[in-house]
């Protein structure tokens, strides 16, 4: 019998410039299925990040030029790495009460949490009249330098896990 | 397969490109330059840059090369003239570099050979969206400015026929409408470009602005411009006066005048503005448009009129229209007839190569695959050699 062939997902390209992490980020930003809008916001973010960095590069003296990172993709990946939590909290019920138990996270869960925090931070905690791409570019550049609210949230998560060390035995897997 | 669904770029690259036949002589050199690595920087640099910063001295051999405009000249000649994306590019790269291309070179050649005693020739730049009409116009105006002509640059005539916040009835003519904000902004920028001439040219008659304000005969034109800028209510009339004076006094003996209008099809199209009884306004009922139309006539000598017809920014025109006949309409075409049309095509192979090398040199193409042959072929395919499409693609790569 003939095996049925799976249809190609709409976000898959044969382009050399495609990046699976960026595609996942675009899908997470998407609302009401408007991938065009989400993708355009991401491209504008990369453009504005690149503009800021390239401007700094061209104005810097020759000694500092090597230190300035201009590639928006490396900045994005590095910022995402910096935002990924190492240890997470899980709600476990024991004896009628719910405890926040520290637990290791899988790679995909860590990536998901980092992206989710970035997007919610930009949506909620910024001035309402700035564009999304501006907010995202500021947040990504800050995360690249290990500053900013998302990094703070990651550190808060780590501190909570450290504080609840005693409950680690409630996890049975 | 769904390629990047960026609608604007797809629109730009799907238009039929009318590129000129490829000249194979330069290609061999370019192929060598493309496969060279980043380490020997000097030889690729010589291919796409030229040290000639005067458009008058550019020739056939400079086609495809970039020349730099010094920042002081950018501030005086183009306070409002350059397209927005190019201004951003100047800010990012810390330099203003324009590519020498065939249409601009042709135009500058005609300007050099034109006889000042004959009536002014009208040149119309046309082409598809994003092929470089506005920048070719800016290049020609740069050349004229360096030759010490008087520059009258309207950066986008479409801005005068749409989205006007304050529309007031003209005090001078009962049926016409004034646009104080647009007029005063334009006068400020005009003053920046032509400081020198404003002190030399004198008015030929007395102008009365209101019961207590008037400008005498024989006063420098700078006073009219100041009057327009300070008294915003009379700004449109001040623009009209300035245009009238410049046209009347542009004789072969005195200064040479060049009128550069981007989007001249706005003057004969339709407007989106409405009167108070919600009926549409015709462009001829706007003071600014009415006065500018008088400038576009060829009944004066000692200068030139360079215009661009563009669909970008125009209202009520289909996006596939790019020929002058379609965009100007019957009225506009008859008014401008006879004119010299100049087609601005998309990049040739050599120009595309040169543009790609320039972006790489200024660290604009950052993606690691953008530096490979595969990436370059993909950029060529996606942009269809359209300058604006290439610029927007490289912006996020």
UniProtKB/TrEMBL annotation, chain A:
It is found in: Mitochondrion. GO terms for cellular component: mitochondrial inner membrane; mitochondrial small ribosomal subunit. Residues 12-165 form the Small ribosomal subunit protein uS7 domain. Keywords: Mitochondrion, Ribonucleoprotein, Ribosomal protein, Transit peptide. GO terms for biological process: translation. InterPro entries: Ribosomal_uS7, Ribosomal_uS7_dom, Ribosomal_uS7_dom_sf. The keyword Hydrolase does not apply. Belongs to the universal ribosomal protein uS7 family. This is Small ribosomal subunit protein uS7m. It comes from Acipenser ruthenus (Sterlet sturgeon).
């Amino acid at each position: 019998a003939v095996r049925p062939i799976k249809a190609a997902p709409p976000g898959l390209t044969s382009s050399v410039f495609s990046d699976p992490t960026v595609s996942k980020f675009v899908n997470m930003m998407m609302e009401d299925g408007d991938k065009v809008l989400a993708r355009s916001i991401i491209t504008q973010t990369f453009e504005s990040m690149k503009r800021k960095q390239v401007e700094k590069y061209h104005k810097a003296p020759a000694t500092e030029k090597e230190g300035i990172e201009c590639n928006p993709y490396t900045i994005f990946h590095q910022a995402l790495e910096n935002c990924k939590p190492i240890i997470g909290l899980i709600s476990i019920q024991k004896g009628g009460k719910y405890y926040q138990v520290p637990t290791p996270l899988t790679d995909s869960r860590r990536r998901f949490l980092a992206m989710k925090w970035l997007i919610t931070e930009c949506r909620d905690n910024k001035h309402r009249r700035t564009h999304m791409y501006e907010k995202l570019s500021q947040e990504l550049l800050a995360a690249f330098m290990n500053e900013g609210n998302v990094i703070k949230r990651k550190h808060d998560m780590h501190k909570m896990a450290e504080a609840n060390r005693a409950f680690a035995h409630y996890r049975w897997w | 397969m769904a390629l990047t669904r960026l609608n604007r770029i797809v629109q730009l690259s799907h238009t039929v490109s009318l590129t000129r036949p490829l000249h194979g002589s330069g290609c061999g050199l370019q192929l060598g330059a493309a496969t060279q690595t980043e380490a020997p920087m000097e030889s690729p640099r010589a291919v796409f840059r030229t040290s000639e910063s005067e458009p008058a001295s550019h020739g056939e051999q400079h086609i495809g090369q970039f020349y730099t405009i010094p920042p002081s000249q950018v501030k005086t000649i183009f306070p409002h003239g350059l397209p927005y994306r190019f201004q951003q590019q100047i800010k990012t790269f810390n330099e203003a570099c324009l590519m020498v291309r065939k249409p601009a070179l042709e135009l500058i050649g005609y300007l050099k050979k034109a006889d000042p005693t004959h009536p002014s020739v009208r040149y119309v730049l046309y082409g598809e969206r994003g092929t470089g009409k506005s920048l070719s116009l800016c290049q020609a105006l740069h050349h004229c400015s360096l030759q010490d002509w008087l520059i009258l640059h309207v950066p986008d005539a479409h801005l005068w026929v749409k989205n006007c916040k304050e529309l007031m009835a003209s005090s001078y003519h009962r049926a016409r409408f004034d646009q104080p904000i647009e007029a005063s902004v334009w006068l400020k920028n005009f003053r920046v470009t032509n400081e020198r001439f404003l002190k030399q040219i004198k008015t030929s008659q007395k102008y009365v602005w209101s019961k207590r304000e008037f400008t005498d005969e024989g006063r420098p034109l700078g006073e009219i411009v100041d009057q327009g800028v300070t008294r915003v209510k009379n700004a449109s009339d001040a623009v009209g006066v300035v245009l009238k004076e410049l046209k009347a006094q542009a004789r072969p003996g005195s200064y040479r005048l060049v009128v550069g209008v981007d989007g001249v099809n706005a003057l004969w199209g339709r407007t989106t503005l409405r009167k108070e009884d919600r009926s549409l306004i015709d462009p001829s009922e706007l003071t600014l448009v009415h006065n500018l139309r008088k400038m576009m006539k060829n009944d004066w000598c000692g200068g030139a009129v360079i215009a661009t017809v563009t669909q970008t920014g125009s209202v009520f025109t289909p996006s596939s229209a790019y020929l002058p006949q379609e965009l100007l309409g019957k009225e506009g075409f008859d008014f401008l007839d006879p004119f010299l049309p100049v087609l601005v095509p998309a990049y040739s192979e050599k120009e595309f190569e040169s543009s790609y090398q320039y972006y790489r040199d200024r660290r604009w193409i950052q993606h690691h695959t953008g530096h490979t042959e595969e990436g370059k072929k993909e950029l060529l395919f996606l942009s269809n050699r359209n300058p604006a499409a290439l610029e927007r693609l490289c912006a996020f790569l």
